[in-house]
Design a protein that fits this description.
Strand content: 15-25%
Helix content: 25-40%
Structural class: alpha/beta
Mean pLDDT: 93
CATH architecture of the largest domain: 3-Layer(aba) Sandwich
CATH topology of the largest domain: Rossmann fold
Radius of gyration: 27 Å
CATH superfamily of the largest domain: Thiamin diphosphate (ThDP)-binding fold, Pyr/PP domains
Length: 605
């Protein structure tokens, strides 16, 4: 897989520090190190958030040690402050920053195009097209980073991260760097404005050398001939190559750009000079298209440049071979590969992603809604702010709990904003344990300091669940086997000075309903820590679990169990509810809400 290839490339390059924060589609890079790298002299750990992850890797790179940091696109937002500053200081050991964008989007709140960040930060950015290519690209980028003495960004997209392809393994560089760090305030201290100006001049001079240094490492290429040219990059290149395979009577030159920023102007000028018409094929924004048009204008080239701005390709969503064939057909005024067809002919019924069977978050949100009602409020008048994590799936039917999902840690801050605006009903913020550690602590401090009336529900399932069960600061042993000190959420919350803290197991539904109903009316910042392990992890650790079955003679087909819980282990057939035995985790929530006692434990029925 592409992510495994990235990990392999870093390993072959002699990486010694690997950090990041879980986020699909980037997670498997570090997971690969955890699965395959036990015993290697490499520090590989998840950090509490992307900013911390970058700064750990950056500190190691300053000491001359090759380092890799991984994140998904929104994580780059979190890490952007230190990344922009790092451009002025530079590095000694190679530092590669992997950012995985998610055209589609498949698992991300935005279709962020992180190529613009390279321009903002003034840091070189590169991309690749296949798993085999990205493995070699990572190795090259470590060398390039050390030559330029700058962090270098690698931008991937979901299809590259999760695509599977053949990878030729290479030699592993044996590096034994002796970490060192010397005092150099003009370089490393950003408090000096004169120094900052000098470092900015240094940075611009380095950027002017990127293309020459990259060309020595065989970045950027062109193939084919003719004056019809397709400029492309990343995974879009593979779609172009596949589509052009259908053309027999028109020569098309393919100009493949691996160097995203700064754009390889000399390379593009040389090849664009031989073109008459140009089609730019890229995902998300017309970033490369604008660069091509700018270079053509500056060089006085009489080019017809088309792409997203002319409507040949969509501005949203990921590309696929069918979309590229259709664009080529319009551009060439020729049917490329017959009538373009949709990628997926099968009609699949829509189904929103559900919470897993037995998920403690299902219990938590049901208890929250019941508690609000018991306290005498209408559900429509008590806003429930959500956050980033699997619990955001509670927005879907039948739970329909959260009203917002914005960014990591924003639930508490946004809920606070509503209250200080004068909202006269209770407001609830819900946030997961990993997200609380990631970005929720400063927001809770702000709420306590400003004495805001707020109920905060921390959903503590002891793991970063949605991205594949990664560790949180509550773990005593990390995935690498490293002994760690457990950080207890309750201790953190109490140290901040909240007015009340209650810890409850959401599986004890009645107790949690009571906690919500009693706290929601009281003044001050109240925190409920709803603690129960992720049910999938818990089931794996348990030797046996309870199983439930439906008594057909008692089941009336009222669907109360389905309509209340939304459990994906339940389905409806022949007028009766059925239970998928392999999916059932034995939580018993469906039995609780069956008005006819038609769902019973197998041994008790």
């Amino acid at each position: 897989m592409g992510n495994e290839a990235i990990a392999r490339g870093a390993f072959e390059a002699g990486v010694r520090v690997v950090t990041g924060y879980p986020g699909t589609p980037s997670s498997e890079v570090i997971m690969t190190f955890h699965e395959e790298g036990r015993g290697l002299p490499i520090y590989v750990e998840w950090a509490v958030n992307e900013r911390v992850a970058f700064e750990v890797a950056y500190g190691a790179a300053l000491a001359g040690v090759r380092s890799l940091v991984t994140m998904k696109a929104p994580g780059l937002n979190v890490a952007s402050d230190p990344i922009v500053s790092a451009a002025y200081s530079g590095v000694e050991g190679g530092l590669v920053v992997l950012v995985a964008d998610d055209p589609g989007p498949h698992t991300t709140q935005t279709e962020q195009d992180s190529r613009w960040y390279a321009k903002l930060a003034k840091l070189p950015m590169f991309t690749a097209s296949t798993p085999g290519e990205v493995k070699d690209t990572v190795k090259k980028l470590f060398k390039l980073s050390e030559e330029l003495k700058l962090p270098v960004m690698l931008r991937t997209t979901t299809r590259l991260n999760h695509a599977v392809g053949e990878v030729v393994l290479g030699e592993v560089e044996v590096l034994n760097p002796r970490p060192s760090f010397r005092k150099d305030p003009p370089r490393f201290v950003r408090a000096g404005m004169k120094w900052n100006l000098e470092r900015h001049i240094w940075l611009n001079n380095v950027l002017a050398r990127v293309e020459e240094a990259a060309s020595k490492l065989s970045f950027n290429s062109a193939e084919g001939g003719g004056d019809h040219c397709v400029v492309t990059e990343g995974v879009a290149y593979t779609y172009v190559k596949e589509s052009l395979g259908w053309i027999k009577d028109i020569d098309v030159r393919v100009i493949k750009v691996d160097q995203i920023y700064p754009p390889p102007k000399a390379f593009l000028r040389r090849h664009l000079a031989e073109c008459r018409r140009v089609l730019v094929v890229e995902e998300l924004d017309p970033y490369l298209e604008s660069e091509v048009k700018k270079i053509a204008f500056e060089e006085g080239l009489k080019l017809e440049v088309a792409g997203k701005e002319e409507g040949l390709l969509p501005l949203e969503g990921e590309l696929n071979p069918a979309l590229v064939r259709e664009a080529l057909s319009k551009w060439l005024n020729k049917n490329v590969g017959g009538k373009p067809t949709k990628l997926y002919e099968a009609v699949v019924p829509e189904r929103p992603p559900p919470l897993c069977p037995g998920c403690p978050h299902t219990f938590s949100y049901l208890a929250l809604k019941l508690g609000i009602a018991r306290a005498g409020f209408k559900l429509s008048e008590v806003p429930i702010f959500g956050d980033i994590g699997c619990y955001a799936l509670s927005v879907n039917k039948p739970i329909e709990a959260i009203w917002t999902e914005h960014s990591m840690g924003a639930s508490i801050s946004m809920a606070m904003g509503l209250k200080i605006a004068g909202y006269d009903k209770p407001v609830v913020a819900t946030i997961g344990d990993s997200t609380f550690f990631h970005a929720g602590i400063p927001a809770l401090i702000e709420a306590v300091h400003k004495r805001v009336d707020l109920l905060v529900l921390i959903l503590d399932n002891r793991v970063v669940a949605m991205t594949g069960h990664q560790s949180t600061p509550s773990w005593e042993v990390t995935e690498s086997g490293r002994s760690a000190r457990r950080i207890e959420i309750v201790d953190v919350v109490k140290s901040i000075g909240v007015d009340e803290v209650v810890v409850v197991d959401p599986y004890e539904l009645d107790k949690m309903v009571e906690a919500v109903s009693s706290l929601i009316r009281r003044p001050g910042v109240k925190v409920i820590v709803a603690r129960h392990p992720c049910r999938l992890m818990e089931v794996r650790e348990l030797k046996t679990i309870r199983k439930f079955r439906v008594l057909e003679d008692k089941c009336t087909g009222c669907r109360a169990c389905v309509n209340v819980t939304g459990c994906p282990a339940l389905y409806f057939e022949g007028g009766k509810v059925r239970i998928l035995g392999d999916d059932c985790t034995g939580c018993g929530l469906c039995a609780r809400f069956c008005p006819y006692n038609a769902i019973v434990e197998e041994d008790g029925g």
